[in-house]
Amino acid sequence: MLNGLWLGFFLTAALAAMVRWLVGGEAAVFAAMVESLFAMAKLSVEVMVLLFGTLTLWLGFLRIAEAAGLVAWLARMLGPLFRRLMPGVPAGHPALGLITMNFAANALGLDNAATPIGLKAMRELQTLNPEPRTASNAQILFLVLNASSLTLLPVSIFMYRAQQGAADPTLVFLPILLATSASTLAGLLAVALVQRLRLWDPVVLAYLLPGALALAGFMAFLGTLSAAALSSLSSLLGNLVLFGLIVAFLAIGAWRRVEVYESFVEGAKEGFDVARNLLPYLVAMLCAVGVLRASGALDIVLAGIRFMVEFLGWDARFVDALPTALVKPFSGSAARAMLIETMQSQGVDSFPARVAATIQGSTETTFYVLAVYFGAVGIQRARHAVGCALAAELAGVLAAIAVCYWFFG
């Protein structure tokens, strides 16, 4: 799938460039495309330098949390909930701890770090699957919740905004929190409807209702604030939660007599390896997106969408953020490239760039996650996984656009 998407970017760019040359007489388009190739290759390395540090840092802290028993504690705390949402998984099964770690990595915005953990969890769930070539209910729920990507602390988004020179990288913290909550809720409800999960079970409600009520109350409070106050609060909470989490990991680790420095270094080594392996993919996708933009093909698509939006009488500022949304179901690296390119072309603190950052943090890559996670265990029949995951993704994109108009409009 990624092969076709990547090749399609180049072929579409070539076709658009030929039309501009033969019909419009714009021969300079080819020079612009070649220049874009080299510019995007350079940008890939610049982004990668910061990505090395970020992944190394956060996987180091996650290893401290794991050594301190926080992950195991979360698995025990969530055990009763998972037993009802995933009735086919027995209590204490290794998959539950891995699922918890995967969700923790996603919650911190470390989508690349979450992938290897998620693959381990999928393999453990596969040991319970009576039909190895068909996705089980538990595997589908895990995949859809993974695709909805509940992101409580979008570190990667902060990093990209910082790398592009944002005045306040954490400004999109609250918009992402609200949009990702919408996508996760939509994904859970879609799976529950198909699998007939009893969400009204007292234990499930005991877990979900307090969170839902707290989120509703928080949104009601946000509704009383001005746009300036919303931006200020988002910045404060983003930085406060980020640093508070680090202090909590270190404090609990020290209290549990964990060798925090050694644990950090051990986890950081893993982060270094993960980041190093991402560079070829980042170069490939950024260069493809750069060529697509330079050819004018992307502008043609966006112009068509903008025309329809304006014809309906709607504000069209969000249209420039749609490239990230359009490729997000297929490839995280392509969406990441689209986000960075939008920041470069529109300005990192422009409205489209903020919408694109919120979209990037609100959902995951449906087809990529499906191909990687199911492909790793040989599943060929996905059943209702795709439909439920796409429903969650659509909810996240629509919520991201709406929330950004609320905060920054």
Description:
The protein contains 17 helices and no strands. The chain is mainly α and 409 residues long. It has one domain. The longest helix is centred in the N-terminal third of the chain and has 40 residues, at 28-67.
Estimate the helix proportion, in percent.
over 70%
What is the radius of gyration computed over CA atoms, rounded to a whole number of angstroms? 21 Å
Total of domains:
1
Could you give the distance between the termini?
Answer: 36 Å
Main beta sheet strand tally, sense and closure: none
Shape: globular
Nearest-integer average pLDDT: 80
Low-confidence stretches: none
| Run of helices and strands | HHHHHHHHHHHHHHHHH
Number of strands: 0
Helix count?
Answer: 17
Strand content: under 5%
Protein structure class: mainly alpha
